[in-house]
Amino acid sequence: MTARVVLVSRAMTRPDRTYAALATELADRHLEPTAIPWGPAWCSAERLEAYGVADEARLVEDHLAPFDGPVSVVGHSCGCLAAVLFALARPHRVMSLTLVDIAWLGNRPRWPGQAEFTAAMDRIAALPPAGVGPAFAAAFSPPGPHQAPTPPAPNPGLGRLVAEAQVAWRAWRRDPLEPELDPLTMPVHLPFATTGPAWMRAVAVALAARLPNATSTELPGTHLDVVNRNAGRLAHWIHRHAATPTGGPAAGGGGGGPSRGAPAARPPVRVPTPP
Question: How far apart are alpha carbons 25 and 19 in whole angstroms?
Answer without folding.
Answer: 10
